Amino acid sequence: MPSPVIPYFHVDAFAQRPFAGNPAGVCPLQAWLPTAQMQQIAAENNLAETAFIVPRAGAESEYDIRWFTPTVEIDLCGHATLASAHVLFTHLGFAEAEVIFHSQSGPLHVSREADGRLTLNFPSRPPQEMTTHPTGLTDALHATPLRVLAARDLLVVFNTEAEVRALKPDYARIAALEYVGVIATAPGTDGVDFVSRFFAPRVGVPEDPVTGSAHSTLIPYWAEKLGKTELRARQISPRGGDLWCRLRGDRVDISGYAVTYAVGELRAGI
Asked: Which residues are responsible for catalysis (predicted)?
């Protein structure tokens, strides 16, 4: 008897063409697999995150969602949520204007805009200034930031985009810090309000190409700094990605495009 198969979608999120943005795996399920097996699938996919979604009983436009890096389950992920919504809207006949995902971080709404962009509504995670920098941070970055703040992740602020682009961190030392990841940011240029990079070797992602969850912290920081609630952002990893951002009190909107790279099935031996 053949093993059951799992539908699988590989989506480049925060991108308008393949080979840009942040690749995510999406596995639509009818019921949860064992956690250990979902972790094995994510490790085999070897993408920054693989998302698993399960429809909520009695709620046609609502799903439960979980995200796994190659090494751990994570509490919030933007690009794989964007990718999951893209799969529902583009491939699985989802006809509503908005989908609600229930997660470890509460309900996450994703709406489809007229121009094809998808907008994530996420919790805001404002960072708090640190009076004492974490031990080893400067050595880990091989650079000295202007400011250091913290939420779930460390936020390190530099004067210029060029400084952020030039960072060559020591990933082993970054992983030793007591945070999920380190967000490096600076003012942007060419119509972009701010730029960023995100390093998370502690959870198996040395540098994440485009990080929606990091913008839960970046948006409130830059909204206060620049005195505006609508912002344009760019993550300047080698793949890169563009994000349209809005502060909404204790929530943030994060918008971007997504494209499907591959569609297939996983034969995971379930």
From this structure: 49
> What gap in Å lies between CA 207 and CA 152, rounded to an integer?
17
CA 61 to chain centre: 22
The residues pairing with 194 across neighbouring beta strands, listed in sequence order, are 187, 233
Domains of the chain by start residue, with CATH:
6-123+256-266 (3.10.310.10), 128-249 (3.10.310.10)
Active-site residue list: 49
- Is 102 within 8 Å of 81 (Cβ atoms)? no
pLDDT (tens digit per residue) in 61-81: 899 999 999 999 999 999 999
Beta strand 118-123 pairing with 106-112: antiparallel
The DSSP output letter for 44 is H
Q: What is the pLDDT of residues 226-244, one digit of tens each?
A: 999 999 999 999 999 999 9
Cα–Cα distance, 30 to 4 (Å, whole number): 12
The mean pLDDT value of the chain amounts to 95
Half-sphere exposure of 15 (CA within 13 A, CB side): 26
Would you mind telling me the total number of residues written for the chain in this entry? 270
Q: How confident is the model at residue 269 (pLDDT cuts 50, 70, 90)?
A: low
Q: What is the pLDDT of residues 167-188, one digit of tens each?
A: 999 999 999 999 999 999 999 9
d(CA 170, CA 179): 15
Reduced to 3 states, what is the DSSP secondary structure of residue 201? helix
Backbone angles phi, psi at 39, to 5 degrees: -65, -40
**Helical segments of the chain, H only:** 35-45, 78-91, 137-141, 161-166, 171-175, 215-226
Check residue 1 and give its pLDDT: 42
Helix, strand, coil content of the chain in percent (nearest 5)? 20, 40, 40
